[in-house]
Amino acid sequence: MVDSHDSSGGTDDRPFEEVFYPTDRIALVEWREFSGARPTVALTALVTVLAFVTGLSNLSQSQVALDGPLATVLPMARAFVRFAGVLFAFPLGVVTVGLQRRKRIAWLAAMVLIPGLVLLPLSTGNATEIPLLLVVLATVPLLVRNRADFAETLDLSALQTAALTAIVGVGLYGTVGAYGLREQFLELNTWGDAFYYVVVTIATVGYGDITPLTTEAKLFSLSVILLGTGAFTVAVGALIGPAIESRMAAAFGTMTASELSLLEDHVVVLGHGDVTESFLDRFGDETDLVVVTPDADVASRLTDAGVEVLTDDPADEAALDDVRLDAARAVAVAGDDDAQNVLAVLAARSVHPDVRIVAVANEETHVDKLRAVGADEVIDLRAIGGRRLGESVFEREPAGGDEGVGAHAAGPDTDSPTDTDVTETDSPTDADVTETDPATDADGAENDPPTDARG
Fold first, then answer.
1. 203, 218, 221, 288: most buried, per Cβ within 10 A?
2. Cα 312 from Cα 145, distance rounded (Å)
3. Which candidate, 205, 210, 239, 240, places its Cα nearest to that of 225?
4. How far apart, in whole angstroms, are the C-alpha atoms of residue 405 and residue 398?
5. What's the CA gap between 113 and 94, in Å, rounded?
6. What is the C-alpha separation between 22 and 204, in angstroms, rounded?
7. 198 within 8 A of 175, measured Cβ to Cβ
8. Strand pairing of 308-311 and 289-293?
9. pLDDT grade, residue 450 (50/70/90)?
10. From CA 57, how far away is CA 64, in angstroms rounded?
11. Rounded distance, CA 38 to CA 17, Å?
C-alpha cells in the first residue's frame, strides 16, 4: 500500500501495482504486443531460419522439382531454386540483427529480401515450403506497419566508413583491372571471371585456375593482394571495436546506444535510493526496467544483478532521450534527494508531457512541490512509515492482553473498521468498551438483568 497524494490534495491507499500500472487502458491496446517491432524482428528471424533450412534441402537433392506457377517465367529458375534459400538466409541474418537495433537500412534490406523469398515456393510448388510462404506473407505487412519504429541511422565512425570504402574500392579496382588485362591471364575471359579472381586473391585462397602470365599481370596481382588484405584487416578491426566497447560499457555498468535503441514499453527509474531496491526486487523480473543514476558504483552493482542501467544524470533531458522516454510506459522518480527528484520530474515532463510519472517524497514538505512540477502521483515515505507503525501497534497490542489501546495511534486514516478506541468486539458497544457481554452496562460491570446500574 502507498500513501499517494492526488491532484486534489487528499490521499488514497492503493497498491504499487495500481499506481504504476493503472487498469483504465484503451481496449485492445495490448494488440501492440503482437504486432509491434519486436514481433516483426522475431518473424524476420523465423524467415531466416526457414529460408536456410529450405536452401539446404534443395541443395541436398540431385534434382530440384520445378512445379510451381513461376517456374516457366523465372530466368535461371533451377539455379535460383537450388541456391536462393541459403544465399538469402545469410544476409537476412545480418538484417535481423540490424532490425533489433532499429536500423533503417536493415528495414530497407528486409523489404527487398523477404518479398523475394516468395519466388522460391512459387517456383518449386513444394508443399514443404508452404510454411516459408506463410511466414513471409505475415512478416511483410508487419514490416510496413512498423516502418516508423526502424528509423535509426547507421552511425558509422570515420574509421569504419574508410574501411568499408577501401574494400569496395579494392574490389572495383581488381575487377576492372583484371578484366582489362584478361589477355595476360590464363582462363580469365568474362567479368564474372574477373570478380571471382579478385575474391579468391583477397581471401588468399588462390585455387590456381586463373594465373597471371606476364610481369605486368603479376605486379597487378601483387597490388590486389596487398591492398585487399590491408583493407580487409582494417575493416575487421573497425567492426570488432564496437563489440569490445559494448563489453567494456557493460563492465562499467552502462548501456550502449544499440541496447538503448531496443527499449520499448518499459519503466524508467530516475535516481536510486533505498526505495528503489525494494521496487526492483518486486518488479524487476516482471517488467522491462532501466535505471538512470549518476553513481557508477551503484550502476555496476545493478548491472551485475541483471538490471539495465544508464550511468548519467536523471535530470538531463539528453539522458532521458537516450533511454527512449517517449516509448516508456511510466516513470518512477525514486532518489534519496528531493531536490534532484524535482529536477528529474521537470526533465521527464519536458521530454514526454503525457508519460505517467510517480515520484517519491522523502520529506512531507516536498509532496506539494513534486506534484506542482508535474508528478501524477506522489508517495510520501514518512506518512507510510508512521501509518504502518500505528497499524502494527493497533494489531499486536490486544493480542498481549493490554486493553484500551486505541486506533487513534495509527492516525485518522487507517484500515481498521472503526476510528474510536475499540479493539475487538463481538457486538455493537459504546466507544470505551473493550470485550464485553451484551448484558454489560456502560460501566463495564457484569450484572444480572434484574439488577440496576448501581450494582
1. 221
2. 34
3. 205
4. 7
5. 12
6. 62
7. yes
8. parallel
9. very low
10. 10
11. 25
Taking alpha carbons only, the member of 160, 155, 156 closest to residue 235 is 160
Q: What is the pLDDT of residues 418-448, one digit of tens each?
A: 343 433 334 333 434 334 344 434 344 444 4
Contact between 99 and 150 under an 8 Å Cβ cutoff? The reply is: yes
Percent of the chain with pLDDT over 90: 9
- Rounded Cα–Cα distance for residues 372 and 69 (Å): 68
Nearest-angstrom CA–CA distance, 445 and 403:
16
Q: Is 422 left (phi over 0), alpha (psi -120 to 50) or beta?
A: beta
DSSP 423: -
Using one digit for the tens of pLDDT, what is the confidence trace for 169-181? 988 999 999 898 8
pLDDT in tens, 364-408: 888 888 888 888 988 887 777 777 777 777 765 444 444 333 333
Which triple of cell numbers denotes residue 180? 582489362
Bigger pLDDT: 313 vs 430: 313
- Please tell me which residue, 16 or 105, carries the higher pLDDT value: 105
* Sequence-ordered list of residues with C-beta below 8 angstroms from that of 332, at least 6 positions apart, any chain: 20, 267, 268, 269, 270, 279, 358, 359, 360
Cβ atoms of 132 and 120 within 8 Å: the answer is yes
Strands 289-293 and 211-212: unpaired
**pTM: predicted TM-score of the whole model, two decimal places:** 0.48
In sequence order, what are the residues at sequence separation of 6 or more whose Cβ sits closer than 8 angstroms to the Cβ of residue 381? Answer: 275, 360, 361, 362
